[in-house]
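in:
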């Protein structure tokens, strides 16, 4: 999508929000249609449960309907929607699931006293997000993503899966841009190390053909 198209889409969305705040229910229907799949995708990636994700989606759409007038336009509307989705998803998770007891440092590369990386980790992907949607690797990567500590996981999902910009991720999570980049970098290193064995084996098999 071109920069010009993005600006036009943003303006169109702003008009829809203003129309809905003025009481236009057709504008709400369009907003709901625009965001329903995005809300569901993010909540499902956090919870891995279709029924829970459906519940959260309906809850978020209801919140948008009831609280649209509390949106003041200080941040992007999409950031506001994602923030509500995260809050609703975490509330659902707290009642059902404990966070995984795992330290991200356990799976990050280790370095020796001279500052060199002690083990070679195969760089199987520069664009992790593209692998999430291939049939062969989807389930394996999903399981690895689920192992991410929550702070890194949500940044990874928003940035690499949902495709938000670094600035928008920071807006959603109330983080500085350096903090977003740091968490994303740690998440990618985590996944790279966790999945290097699988992709290394896959590449070896391809080389045997």
């Amino acid at each position: 999508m071109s920069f010009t198209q993005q600006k036009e889409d943003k303006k169109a969305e702003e008009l829809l929000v203003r129309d809905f705040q003025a009481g236009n229910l057709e504008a709400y229907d369009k907003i709901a249609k625009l965001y329903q799949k995005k809300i569901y995708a993010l909540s499902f990636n956090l919870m891995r449960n279709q029924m829970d994700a459906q519940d959260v989606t309906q809850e978020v759409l209801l919140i948008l309907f009831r609280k649209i007038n509390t949106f003041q336009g200080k941040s992007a509307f999409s950031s506001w929607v994602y923030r509500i989705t995260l809050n609703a998803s975490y509330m659902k998770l707290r009642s059902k699931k404990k966070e995984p007891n795992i330290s991200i440092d356990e799976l990050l590369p280790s370095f020796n006293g001279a500052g060199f990386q002690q083990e070679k980790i195969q760089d199987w992907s520069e664009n992790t997000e593209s692998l999430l949607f291939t049939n062969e690797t989807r389930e394996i990567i999903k399981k690895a993503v689920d192992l991410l500590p929550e702070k890194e996981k949500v940044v990874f999902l928003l940035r690499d899966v949902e495709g938000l910009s670094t600035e928008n991720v920071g807006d959603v999570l109330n983080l500085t841009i350096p903090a977003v980049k740091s968490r994303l970098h740690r998440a990618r290193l985590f996944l790279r190390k966790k999945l290097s064995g699988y992709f290394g084996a896959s590449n070896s098999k391809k080389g045997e053909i």
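note: The CA atoms of residues 62 and 91 lie 16 Å apart.
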